[in-house]
Amino acid sequence: MSSIFKYIWRIINGTRKVIINLVFFIVLAIFLASMISGEDPIEVPENGILVLNPQGILVEEETWVDPIDKFFSEALGSGNDIPEVLVTDVVESIEMAQNDDRIGALYLDLQDLYPSGINKLSAVTEALEEFRTSGKPIISNADYYAQHQYYIAAHADQLYLNPMGGVVFEGLDYTQVYFKELLEKLKVKPHVFKVGKFKAAVEPFIRNDMSDEAREANETLYSELWAEFRNSVTTTRNINPRLTSGKIDDYMAAFDEANGDMARMALDNNLVDALKTRTEVRNELINLAGLDEEKETFKHITFDNYLTAQKPPMPAPKAKDKPKISVVVARGQIVDGSQKAGMIGGDSTAKLIRDARNDENTKAIVLRIDSPGGSAFASEIIRQELLQAKEDGIPVVASMSSVAASGGYWIAADADKIIASPTTITGSIGVFGLLMNLEDSLAAIGIHSDSISTTEIESINPMEEMTEYQQTMIQKSVENTYDNFLSLVANARNMSKDDVHEIAQGRIWTGRQAMKRGLVDTLGDYDDAIKLAAELASIEKYDVNVVQQKLSPQEQFFAELFNNSAASDLLPKVSRDNSSDWLLKLFSDVQSETAVLRNFNDPKNVYSYCALCPQPR
Q: Active-site residues (predicted)?
């Protein structure tokens, strides 16, 4: 018998050595490839076309991914299911191309653009409108336009659609997954503590549908957002209003007139300028820019390659004594501790603010927020650091992106000025506590728990029923935190607590609605926030510096190693098109709905989080 185990161990040990050696030689090959690669520099073709082809969701800050994990996951086809594109990269490429004589036109290829925040889409359209002043044409083409893609495409001089394609305005909707019945079947008992009748973040765990208050809040919010969306599109193009009315009779009348041909309906109602096949569009672009004989298509460069070509290998050092406006990006759920980019850590984000204020050249700080909130404790740690910056005489501007709600508003409240876009989702001033009790669930499978304590003040054990005093303590802690939230907003916004409570209770607002209620000072975008910060600091000439977490020497080495394009060619790329796997997507959606629970780590189990707000990406 012992010989069998020895034989099995030899197999396991041998396999282990093979895998370790394989990984070692792959890393070695990547390192050598990166050292000896002599890639030709990217060239911008004369009279070429800049292709704007963002592939993913537009974000303020890319989520940090370990470079080794990223390299192998992409090579094996298991990369991020939702790729990310910096909205600043898209806008910058358009702005640079406007005055670049080598760029003769702009082509919008939006087929792979994921749904993104309206304010981020607006940032792109504003850049496109400015680009049009150069006299260079903007051309857009697609097989099918989703409404978020059409929002950008509507700003093209020539808007084409495949004869078999279509454009549909479905409006905005919100879907919440509910788990009450599932938890009952699993015998998991949720303990919920909240303040505010509109604070619906805990509803998925205690209901199977929306409460009347949540439905009212959602309908009000999304109606406002849809009005902004529709107004932007109809102002840009003279679209027949029956296609954007949202009424099925209007839509079906247009559909019937086109004999069920969605492409013809789009053309007849001025959604597009012409119906053209891919070949027809390609030939038109070749006639416009010329033929790239090597690639057998029109002369062009994609926006990401264009940015790479424009940026020098070593950026010029900024003047040490020049005034700075330091930007700190707070994107994602707010959690306790330190986090990488893509999440807001109370400690890590506070450190970025501290680094900014300790820089003697920082004359103002812009906190760019894209967050539905999270840990109340972590939010307060960040707010305290901002207060210290103000005490040091550094003006602070809170700039709201797509979402700045609950804890996202908590960290914004004490800024000298708060600026939001009309479509920002903010407010949600409320607090809740949530704990899951597993006593019945574990008992059902034969697992029990028993404990002793030297005092009557026992710690909370999810394997045991919560005591009455524990529930009382958490409820009072939630109420106290909500009262503190009201007080800090009242003090910061020069309002009474009663007035704040009237518009709080977890209620969510758009940026425009929030300004009317005194929660926001002015409407504007990121650039407006920078200008406002400069005005508060009384400076005219300055550098804008985005404060980022410093990588360790090891992280920096592997980031440069695995981001090398020559290295990335060493492993074959595996296709991971799961578009038809509807069942997997369904499970993925459910998983994403519950993933937020993994990040609930507030030391007091008290959260200011907006579950009804679209999650920032």
A: 199, 406
